[in-house]
Amino acid sequence: MRTDHGDGNRTSGNADYRVLVTHDRAWTAEHTGQSLEQITIDFDGDRWFAGPEAVAYGLAEEVIGPESGTPA
After folding, report:
1. Rounded to an integer, what distance in angstroms lies between the CA atom of residue 56 and that of residue 42?
2. CA-CA distance, 71 to 64, in Å (whole number)?
């Protein structure tokens, strides 16, 4: 698939996706304190995080709800 950006430049949709994924992973690594390599390993797989795991990983600041003892 090719996309016209309205400025005459055409790019492959797959190339756009790769750029977005790379940017997203770099942003996530920067804001979680995880390495880019670790982010790639964890997010290429089928990894799910429970609330406390997400906090420990750096994806969330706190858990609100039954797991934290704080009502949702």
Report:
1. 14
2. 7
Tokens 């997010």 identify what position?
43
| Position 7 pLDDT exceeds 70 | no
Structure tokens at 29: 């690594």
Q: Is residue 12 part of a domain?
A: yes
Which domain, by its residues, includes 20?
Answer: 2-57
Give CA–CA dist 50/63, Å, rounded. 9
Classify residue 25: in a domain, yes or no.
yes
Q: What confidence tens digit (pLDDT) does each residue in 27-68 have?
A: 999 999 999 999 999 988 888 999 999 999 999 999 987 755
How high is the pLDDT of residue 70? 62
